[in-house]
């Protein structure tokens, strides 16, 4: 008993002895201009989820048209002018992507079983026609799922199944996916007309579980090829 009490007192002394050193360090750090840099306030911008009444946001002249021979499924609608930092960024819709290793039959079966349950829960069907971004851009009128992709597709490095998601259903689908994603990584990304930043987890993309290394260089190349190069996205 005495040994235990002695040990406790010894440890308490060690903890206490560090307090003055810590306080001295904090005081010196505060007094030193070199060790006390000014805190940079992060820049924020206004965002707005687009509804049918937002006429300023849904003006088709704000976007590049499809190139000859392209449908709205072949490319991401891209803003003609990159918004400034003080401009409102409009969110037109969202996509969900759930990733799986398509070369493994058991993994693929489990991933597609979650897809089936998702479709049942939200009472949705497969996307038809040119359904990509919604609104003025194509014929998307409600949430739907695309056919699963068994391999590389654009920036996506392996198998995935995807969802077209209207803004008003983001909360419900995010809640369902957070509970039911299983072993699979899930990407939620907005569609703003700035395709690189929409897929970038350092910008606007959100992940459940962990990130998958998307090929953002492919999207940068595509942006340069179709719309002109820009570091602002």
From TrEMBL:
Keyword Metal-binding belongs to the record: no
TM regions (residue ranges): none
Name listed for the protein in its UniProt record: Uncharacterized protein
Keywords for this protein: Signal
Native source species: Adineta steineri
InterPro entries assigned to the protein according to its UniProt record, in alphabetical order: DOPA-like_sf, DOPA_dioxygen
Cleavable signal peptide: 1-17
Keyword NADP: no
């Amino acid at each position: 008993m005495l040994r235990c009490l002695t040990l406790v007192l010894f440890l308490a002394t060690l903890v206490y002895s560090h307090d003055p050193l810590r306080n001295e360090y904090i005081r010196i750090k505060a007094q030193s201009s070199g060790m006390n840099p000014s805190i940079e306030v992060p820049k924020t911008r206004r965002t707005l989820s687009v509804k049918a009444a937002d006429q300023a946001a849904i003006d088709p002249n704000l976007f590049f048209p499809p190139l000859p021979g392209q449908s709205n499924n072949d490319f991401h609608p891209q803003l003609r002018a990159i918004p400034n930092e003080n401009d409102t960024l409009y969110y037109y819709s969202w996509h969900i992507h759930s990733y799986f290793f398509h070369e493994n039959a058991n993994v693929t079966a489990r991933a597609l079983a979650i897809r089936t349950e998702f479709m049942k829960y939200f009472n949705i069907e497969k996307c038809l026609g040119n359904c990509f971004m919604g609104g003025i851009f194509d014929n998307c009128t409600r949430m739907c799922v695309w056919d699963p992709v068994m391999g590389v597709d654009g920036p996506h490095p392996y198998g995935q199944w995807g969802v077209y998601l209207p803004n008003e259903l983001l909360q419900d689908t995010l809640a369902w996916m957070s509970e039911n994603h299983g072993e699979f990584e899930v990407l939620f990304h907005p569609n703003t007309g700035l395709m690189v930043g929409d897929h970038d987890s350092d910008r606007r993309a959100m992940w459940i579980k962990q990130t998958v290394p998307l090929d953002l260089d492919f999207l940068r190349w595509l942006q340069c090829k179709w719309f002109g190069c820009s570091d602002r996205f």
